[in-house]
């Protein structure tokens, strides 16, 4: 059996096993102008299937990377909109701003590989921006979370944000207050409820000590004594930058354990604990901790809303041939896979996993 057939077979099995998590009563947001559910139904009928197959193949062997696929849409959409500008690999680009140095190289490389497969099936048809959103959605489903439809039809940006200060200002750090978080979300048409639901992505993945070291030195009273001691074993001093899971019970399963942990004082970031310091967000945290299906439904709605922030459509964007390069730079691009492997190997020294 060839590797491709094996992946297809495994994909079918996974879908059968976790089909019970499909959101059937989803509050479906209306697509913004230019987007549609099933946008590629005629122009590239297998587009979403190809993304799912490739994601399943990759996560079967790299489940620890699942959280990385959820970070990409967030870090893309909140900076200049959901336009794949985060994927441009440039020394003065978004990837090299401090909040993005921890984006996982293997995730960026996998998105490029998915684009290559989709491009082979349907040249110059499916945008990198749509692949980012679809891969994020599929990472949720393939880690036992809900399946939900997302609108497509985004175009890729013609540029990227210059300067790390601008990018950093758009992405709230892990020590943000609840007021700062809500204010930032409202700027892009999202609510406090969306903030809480999307924070549930912290149910999967990992974080470095540097993201929460200020809660250990000095020791913050937001942490339970036993949890603080566990973290100090992983991060024994202020220079530590080891990796730990964000949910030790089910670290690579998309579920509502994050909210249970949050209520019990077992979360890593100040920005997580901050959600308990506002009546609206605190109420949502407790509801999601009590009812996983309620969380799943709201996450789907909030993810779709986030995926439509400042999208490019029509002549405001284009379809990149290579996700990491603007089209003007990719005209003479050769040996895509080899070039991507070399590029991400070179940048791996300045990135840290997440």
Question: What attributes characterize this protein structure?
Answer:
354 residues; two-stranded antiparallel sheet; 15 helices; 46% helix; disordered N terminus; disordered C terminus; single chain; 4 strands; mainly alpha; globular
Description:
This protein is mostly helical and 354 residues long. It has helices at residues 3-18, 47-61, 66-77, 105-121, 128-141, 164-170, 178-187, 192-199, 225-234, 257-263, 270-273, 279-290, 292-306, 327-330, 336-347, and strands at residues 36-37, 151-152, 206-208, 243-245. Helix 1 crosses helix 2 (47-61), helix 4 packs across helix 5 and helix 12 (279-290) packs across helix 13.
Summarize the structure.
By secondary structure, the protein is mainly α. The protein has 15 helices and four strands.
């Amino acid at each position: 059996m060839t590797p491709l057939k094996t992946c297809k077979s495994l994909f079918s099995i996974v879908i059968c096993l976790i089909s019970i998590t499909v959101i059937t009563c989803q509050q479906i947001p209306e697509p913004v102008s230019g987007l549609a559910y099933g946008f590629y139904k005629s122009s590239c009928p297998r587009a979403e299937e190809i993304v799912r197959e490739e994601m399943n193949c990759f996560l079967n062997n790299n489940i620890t990377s699942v959280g990385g696929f959820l970070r990409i849409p967030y870090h893309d959409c909140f900076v200049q909109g959901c336009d794949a500008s985060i994927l441009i690999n440039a020394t003065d680009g978004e990837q090299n701003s401090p909040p993005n140095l921890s984006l996982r190289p293997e995730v960026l490389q996998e998105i490029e590989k998915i684009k290559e497969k989709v491009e082979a099936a349907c040249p110059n048809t499916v945008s990198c921006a749509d692949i980012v959103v679809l891969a994020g959605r599929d990472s949720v489903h393939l880690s036992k979370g809900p399946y939900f439809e997302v609108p497509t039809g985004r175009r890729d940006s013609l540029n990227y944000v210059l300067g790390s200060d601008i990018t950093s200002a758009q992405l709230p750090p892990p020590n943000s207050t609840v007021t700062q978080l809500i204010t930032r979300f409202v700027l892009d048409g999202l609510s406090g409820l969306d903030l809480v639901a999307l924070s549930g992505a912290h149910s999967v993945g990992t974080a470095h000590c540097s993201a929460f070291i200020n809660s250990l030195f000095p020791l913050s009273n937001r942490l339970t004594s036993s949890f603080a001691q566990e973290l100090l074993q992983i991060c024994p001093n202020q220079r530590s930058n080891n990796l730990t899971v964000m949910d030790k019970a089910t670290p690579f399963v998309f579920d509502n354990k994050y909210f249970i942990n949050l209520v019990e004082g077992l979360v890593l970031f100040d920005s997580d604990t901050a959600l308990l310091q506002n009546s609206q967000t605190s109420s949502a945290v407790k509801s999601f901790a009590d009812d996983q299906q309620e969380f799943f439904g709201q996450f789907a709605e909030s993810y779709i809303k986030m995926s439509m922030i400042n999208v490019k459509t029509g002549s405001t964007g284009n379809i990149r041939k290579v996700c990491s390069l603007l089209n003007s730079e990719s005209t003479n691009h050769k040996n895509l896979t080899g070039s991507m492997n070399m590029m991400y190997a070179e940048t791996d020294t300045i990135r840290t996993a997440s």
